[in-house]
Amino acid sequence: MTTPHATPNQDVEHWLAAFSETLCSDTPEQAAELFEEGGFWRDLVAMTWNIKTMEGRDQIRDMLTATAQQRRPGHWRLAENASEQNGVIEAWLTFETADARGKGHLRLRDGKAWTLLTTMQELKDYPEKRGPRRPKGAQHGASKSRKTWLEARQEEERELGYRRQPYCLIIGGGQGGIGLGARLRQLEVPTLIVERNPRPGDSWRNRYKSLCLHDPVWYDHMPYLPFPEHWPVFCPKDKIGDWLEMYTKVMELNYWSSTECTGARYDTERQEWIVEVRRDGQPVTLRPKQLVLATGMSGIPNIPDIPGMDTFEGEQHHSSRHPGGEAYKGKKCIVLGSNNSAHDICAALWENDADVTMIQRSSTHIVKSDSLMELALGGLYSEQAVANGITTEKADLTFASIPFRIMPEFHKPVYEQIQERDADFYRRLSKAGFLLDFGDDGSGLFMKYLRRGSGYYIDVGASELVAQGEIKLRSGVSIARIQPRSVVLTDGSELPADLIVYATGFGSMNGWAARIISQEVADKVGKCWGMGSDTTKDPGPWEGELRNMWKPTQQDGLWFHGGNLHQSRHYSLYLALQLKARMEGLPTPVYGLQPVHHLA
To answer: Is the pTM of this model over 0.85?
Structure first.
């Protein structure tokens, strides 16, 4: 129990002393008794060489039995003053393991741990060369073998991938691959990024003209180089593209543009990948030890197979190929889908005087951008949060400290408040026939994103057009068949059409594994994303963490990296540390390697 009249700091220090003493004993697993019966320990690489949440004392005890003596966690310290609210004490911690330094977060209730987060931050013998360890840059003194910085960079660019092989190959040069590449560069892991587009940032530039980030700037920083203070809150796609191109150059990344991966296979005997790429039309064979698919959280575009598609005389394409609304003035446009891309595309078509109809097949979660920023994100990612001393790192760790099992309970009150605040907005949308939801359990946008990666729209204006009837709506139906100049819906009605946009989302990331490597390997690693919540499009059983993301998979040497800018930034650290440790030959026994329950 909590000591009467003790301060939060004293309560935390008392718990840490008992925790540390037990972990150092011959029975470290008994530290599980310092948790609530239903307490949580979420570990990001530090203890498990995995991304793993232990739920309840039995799971915590099992993990400690398997890992504590090898990892040797210790030197637990309060990093700053603890705080208390509503009977919950929260504290930031530092600690060490046998080979790493870490940061943590603790929640205590009545003297027992409710949640504990442990994260690896750096490898003791291989820290990043920054701050007091930064390189000099200049070579003082005289040397006949001197090379300038430019000469050394040019030599590296000429040799990597040809005369010497990268340790890590990242397929996909969007923000995920670029951010991970920057982390690995600072850890001195020889890394090559391959991207089929001609320039870094083209994956943004090539999207529809009106695309902007729907997440605010404080949520979207890249590793090491935050956006400047004058950067817009919601960044336009071409500005993001230019930033990524600049970032790639400034961070000195080895980036092969106009390069497409045509195939890969794992050489079990040599424990390396054989990867075939075409660079500027020329074949190159690469032999990395580690292969990272950084193709975003989405896989290959989902394009429905609708009878009559081949007879359509107008234009049809997936939302990922949509150029913008300029060419469709006066045209009859059908957009199949009702999530972010569908709304953005409908609004842009309307702005260009097209006749637009949205086909909404199932209910969608809508949240107004201002409400999301103020009520859901503002405490961690906002100008006010910055003023309150909430750094990007602290915001990321705070978010990570909430185990996914209980995260819905943190989010439900927020979205109840949003529903109350924007009740008239939702009433008018419903009156227009739009099918609304707030997730299966009312937990809102981010849980929907984690569970299924779809089913929502952050409203930046298109919903008002739907409510007013400016964007026409047909809800609860789909397209049954396509005729030369029209679509026939499942209710039997017919709509004239000059353009059909399939805003129908993307498959699992392991679709890229099937295309690049093999279906056998894709099935071996299984579905990416989702956590087994047994909600819509996230089938059980419960797994507790996102499937396959940023952690070891069932295929040796194969990793998946993706997510939004926030996730790519935060989790790239843990993926980079796992890769560095393997390159240096450190023991990395993985606790709790994820079983495969779903193939796609």
So the answer is: yes
